[in-house]
Request: fold
Amino acid sequence: MRFAATVLACLGVGAASGALGDPPASPPATAPPATTPSSATQTPAPAKPAVDPEEKRLIAQGYRAKMRHGEKVFCRTEPELGSRLGGKEICGTVADLKAQQASTREEIQREQRTMTPPGK
Reply:
């Protein structure tokens, strides 16, 4: 038992002295490479396609872009009332979804205008 403790102590001292020793020498410094004007060597970055603000708004509302029959549509899944399974996927183009939201907004405003106050 004492022998094992002595061996472990020696190994610990050896590891500590190696860790505290001089750091390894760094490689010799070399001359910096010749520089050329950055405009001559860099190619212009390809322009990113502009993202339509309506598309950004739909993505922020939880829609995902998909391609269907060569047309870009946006889809999201809405849960069905009374069901914990799956849901209903609603898809449409930017124009379709914008028109649907506008008609829903108009319908809500019309209902609010015609609503009678309680107690009358």
Notes: Residues 94-114 form the longest helix (21 residues).
